[in-house]
Amino acid sequence: MWSANSFQRKVIEYYRQHGRKHLPWQGTKDPYRIWLSEIMLQQTQVATVIPYYEAFLERFPTIVDLAEASSDEVMHLWSGLGYYSRARNLHKAAKTVAEEYAGTFPQDPEEIEALPGIGLSTAGAIAAFAFDKPTAILDGNVKRVLARCYGIEGWAGKSAVLKALWAKAEENTPVKDTAQYNQAMMDLGAVICTRTKPKCDKCPLAKECFALKQGMISELPGKKPKKARPKRSVYWLVCIEDNQVLLHKRPPSGIWGGLWCFPEIEQSEPIPEHSQKLSSFVHKFSHYDLEVQPLLVKKLSKTGIMEPNETERFALAFLNKKTQAKTAQIGLPTPVSKLLASLQ
Ligand code: SF4
């Protein structure tokens, strides 16, 4: 088994020769840009993130611009990227930096971690990349590399497993060249030590890797214990009058918080009178399935299911993503955008 020193050396050497160095958020020391990329990259592929990252920065070039934006506009620019609590927290954290730090991103890892939506690993990444602090990171990619290299078994959602992974991450993180090392570990996990079919023949850690030697690659890292996926069944009430559609803004927290959706009722409720069923579909969230039956209804006010101040009518053309210039500056979840497109 290698020492922390030789592990670091192999990882950094790999990065210098093969690492990704031209992603839009690389080569900057701006903590705002680094933070934005780290948040967007959570659970999301690089190729998906790039256009969102660029559009976001074009509209909000500084953290103060983001702090001053309306929540509808922030959600609009995030629409389609998913995991919307990331956008809500990003907006909240920008306001905190603007108000409490006069618009200058804090440098201390503990202060960074105290901002909304920033966990220990993201704080470590920002502190290392923007401020050259010797802070460790432990995102999903790094967890996979460490679990396989060192044979750390069990699901990282269990505190003992997470503790063992953090201990290895900290032990291996160098004081010098921390940013390069952290970037290298993220790259290794994303490009070489992938979830399925890792490219062990190209891996600088293959010689000592526990999982490779023991034939345990598919078992490491340990998976989350499976539970039956819950399902929720709802009606979406599609009310169109004079080419305008009625949408309802969801409460600020929870699923699709702050985004505009069709008014929704549980399928256990009686179906509204004179409604017509449109094609149903299932939308998968990370922790449950949402079965949606859209219903074309005539007059929504008669159902009495919502507060008038939470709903608004939008011209259908105004909501069409293809007519970019006219698109409303509001956040729409992907299934809502798709259903709207099918109505036009
Ligand atoms: S040898 Fe294979 S399993 Fe082990 S760290 Fe490298 S890519 Fe991952």
TrEMBL record:
EC code(s) of this entry: 3.2.2.31
GO biological process, one term: mismatch repair
Cofactor notes: Binds 1 [4Fe-4S] cluster.
Catalytic activity line of the entry: Hydrolyzes free adenine bases from 7,8-dihydro-8-oxoguanine:adenine mismatched double-stranded DNA, leaving an apurinic site
SMART domains named among the record's database cross-references: ENDO3c, FES
Cofactor(s) it depends on: [4Fe-4S] cluster
Matching PROSITE patterns: ENDONUCLEASE_III_1, ENDONUCLEASE_III_2
Keyword Iron-sulfur in annotation: yes
Record's keyword terms, sorted: 4Fe-4S, DNA damage, DNA repair, Glycosidase, Hydrolase, Iron, Iron-sulfur, Metal-binding
Entry-linked InterPro entries: A/G_AdeGlyc_MutY, DNA_glycosylase, Endonuclease-III-like_CS2, Endonuclease3_FeS-loop_motif, Endouclease-III_FeS-bd_BS, HhH-GPD_domain, HhH_base_excis_C, HhH_motif
Membrane-spanning residues: none
The UniProt record lists the keyword NADP: no
Broadest EC class assigned to this enzyme: hydrolase
Record-stated family: Belongs to the Nth/MutY family.
Function text: Adenine glycosylase active on G-A mispairs. MutY also corrects error-prone DNA synthesis past GO lesions which are due to the oxidatively damaged form of guanine: 7,8-dihydro-8-oxoguanine (8-oxo-dGTP).
Protein known as: Adenine DNA glycosylase
